[in-house]
Amino acid sequence: MPGKHVSRVRALYRRILQLHRALPPDLKALGDQYVKDEFRRHKTVGPGEAQRFLKEWEAISRNLNLIF
């Protein structure tokens, strides 16, 4: 199970950074740094908080995908 969680997190992280490529350079840099900081900050949270975090970022990813 932990391996599946790690791959899910990594795939989501990569997907968000890929979506940022469509942004202007200044916004891309700001967005990339924000995502990196958020994922780093939530690296050691408990299972419940980790699930909420992933759910929210997956929704953000879906919304970004609709925009780009």
Automatic annotation (TrEMBL):
Keywords from the named record: Chaperone, Mitochondrion, Transit peptide
Compartments (UniProt record): Mitochondrion matrix
Main localization of the protein described in the UniProt heading: mitochondrion
GO cellular component: mitochondrial intermembrane space; mitochondrial matrix
Pfam families, sorted: Complex1_LYR_2 (PF13233)
Entry's Gene Ontology BP terms: mitochondrial respiratory chain complex II assembly; succinate metabolic process
The family this protein is said to belong to: Belongs to the complex I LYR family. SDHAF3 subfamily.
Subunit structure comment from the entry: Interacts with the iron-sulfur protein subunit within the SDH catalytic dimer.
Function: Plays an essential role in the assembly of succinate dehydrogenase (SDH), an enzyme complex (also referred to as respiratory complex II) that is a component of both the tricarboxylic acid (TCA) cycle and the mitochondrial electron transport chain, and which couples the oxidation of succinate to fumarate with the reduction of ubiquinone (coenzyme Q) to ubiquinol. Promotes maturation of the iron-sulfur protein subunit of the SDH catalytic dimer, protecting it from the deleterious effects of oxidants. May act together with SDHAF1.
Name of the protein described by the UniProt record: Succinate dehydrogenase assembly factor 3
